[in-house]
Amino acid sequence: xxxxxxxxxxxxxxxxxxxxxxxxxxxxxxxxxxxxxxxxxxxxxxxxxxxxxxxxxxxxxxxxxxxxxxxxxxxxxxxxxxxxxxxxxxxxxxxxxxxxxxxxxxxxxxxxxxxxxxxxxxxxxxxxxxxxxxxxxxxxxxxxxxxxxxxxxxxxxxxxxxxxxxxxxxxxxxxxxxxxxxxxxxxxxxxxxxxxxxxxxxxxxxxxxxxxxxxxxxxxxxxxxxxxxxxxxxxxxx
Length: 238
Known about the structure:
By secondary structure, this protein is an all-alpha fold. Helix content is 61%, strand content 2%. A hairpin with a 3-residue loop joins β1 (19-20) and β2. α1 (43-70) runs antiparallel to α2 and α6 packs antiparallel against α7 (167-183). The longest helix is centred in the N-terminal third of the chain and has 28 residues, at 43-70. It is elongated and about 90 Å long.
């Protein structure tokens, strides 16, 4: 009676076969299946895949960080520092794959990633502690944040008057405006100025640093800032 090995060994050559049961043989393994698959043929291709891998790793890490913050596994301060760093890394990494992918949505679709929290965070461009407010401050700090909000409104509006419309000029001040609005504990969650800030942050974060708002966008942002400042002033008068 033929003896069937308990743990048959496979080999890496197509010329060797193994008998089973009544003497049947496995078909030879094609040569092309024994050849090591290569993603690249030259150093340029290798660098391309390395850069794409960096973007992939950053997005996955950011998704995990968002989950850790939601579960209180990371303090607000730790989360904010790490999130800000990862968002900056993502922008730098995407600059190295320019022409490959248009934005985070394209990248996630192309590589079949399940990272909705990371995608949202990248689009907003600021940590959740800035978008929604982190540690709530007492009324004793309200005057400080009111002053900062007023200053940010003036800075942004004056900048547009001077035709400073590039993303690198507008985004930092818009981010600070949102952060200080969220630091005022008495402002309602649905305060319209917050929604406007978030809307424009998404637009600015989707732009390259040197990209500029169109004339129409500039007029709309000026109007939104003026309306938001008026709404904020009315809130203070209550």
